[in-house]
Amino acid sequence: MTTSPYDPARDGAQMQFDGRMSYGDYLAIDQILTAQHCKTAAHDEMLFIIQHQTSELWMKLALHELSAARRCLAEDRAQEAFKMLARVARIFEQLNSAWDVLRTMTPADYTRFREDLGQSSGFQSWQYRLIEFAVGNRNAAMMKPHEHRPEHLALLQAELARPSLYDEALRFLARSGLSVPEDVINRDVSVARQADDRLVSVWATVYTSPEYHWQAYELAEKLVDFEDYFRRWRFNHVTTVERVIGFKRGTGGTSGVAYLRRMLEVRLFPELWDLRTDL
Question: Which listed CATH number (3.30.457.10, 2.60.40.10, 1.20.58.480, 3.90.1030.10) goes with 44-278?
Fold first, then answer.
C-alpha cells in the first residue's frame, strides 16, 4: 500500500516566501556561502578557508559574550556574568574541535596552496587580538600588524583604554569586601599585569572559605574554566601547525611552532593558578 508524500503545509508550515523573510534571508546565507574565494585548484584550500572563517565567527560571539560579562561584573550582576563566561568556555570548546578537522589536511595537501597565502596568517587576526586584550593579556606591540586598517586599530586602542575582564573581576572582589590592594584597583589598565603574590592571598581567602565568598568563588572557577579551554586551544594550534608544516616559519613571518610554544607560557589569570599550590 502506498501513501501520499507528506506535505508539511498541511500542518501549517510556511512554504511561500515571495516578499517574506526566509531562513536564508535572516541569516544572510548567500553572503556567507559565497565568501570562500580559493586562490588555487587545491582540494584542501576550501577546508582551510572555512575552518578559519568559522573560527572568526565563533570569536565574534566570544567577544560579544566577554564584553557583556565584563559589563555585568562592573554592575555587580555576577550571576549573569557567570552564564556568559560559561558560554565563552563552550565557544572555545568548539574552536578546539575545529583543529581536529583541520588536522585531516596533510603536509602534502597544504603545500599545494601555502605559497598562495602570501603573508596572510592567523597571527594577524584582529578579533583574536581583541580577545587577548579583553581578558587581560595586553601588549601594545601586537597592534602593529593592524595599523593598515584604522578601524581595527581604533578598536584595539579602545580596548586597551578600558579595564580588562580580570581587572573588573578584581574590582568586583574589592566591592565584595576582599582586601584587593588599592594600587591594583587603580593601576594603568592599558599595560599588561604582572603576577602579584598579594592577589594569590586574596584568592586563597576565597578558596579556603568559599561558603563566605560564594560569588567570588564561582567567578574564580568560571575564569579558570575559560582559561583551561583557551590554553587547550593554543596547545591544539601548536600541535596542528607542527603536524602540518613542522618547524617552517609561519606565512606571516613568525618562527611558527617556536612562537606558538612561547605563547603557551602566557597565563591570563596567574594568581588563580598559583594559589592551587598553596592550598
Answer: 1.20.58.480
